[in-house]
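Ex. 9. Protein: Thioredoxin family protein.
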Amino acid sequence: MKNLLVLLTAVLISGAAFGQAKTAGVHIYNPEANAMADIKAATEKAAKANKHVLVQVGGNWCTWCIAFHNLVDTTASLKQTINDNYEYILVNWDKDHHNDEAMKYLGFPNRFGYPVFVVLDGKGKVLHIENSSYLESDEIGANGRKKVGHDVKKITSFLKGWTVAAVDPENYKPKKTAG
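Predicted structure tokens for Thioredoxin family protein:
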């Protein structure tokens, strides 16, 4: 019994250490970045390219933020959809860097947790805030449990639903028929 207790304790400690190590050394967010300057630059670039801005708010401490970024980075269709339609920027939020001015400007998206996504038009207007929990997989794995992670189809639908073309009212006017 004592051996079992020692084994369980060792497993729990190593599991906790592994959980911490998953994001240790991964630095996709720059805590020192000027978030407002990054948003302004992305907005100006988006306006010139007839795109929107996709802001991913999160931090290097956030395993879901890192996982989402890695999924986009390794899924060609997601990467292409973002590159074709958005200026994609990361805005850091952590216990030492709250980026209060940026959070206010973006409509306090951090109220939804992390990562959270904000779509801006080429003038910097907030069009949409997406709670990332809506992008998680509903798929049930072979073990009968819900798979953990984000769903490529849901992400694609979200991204395509907020492109410049998707929100252009001209694309929804009735077509005139010859007659």
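Check your answer against this statement. The domain at 25-133 is CATH 3.40.30.10 (Glutaredoxin).
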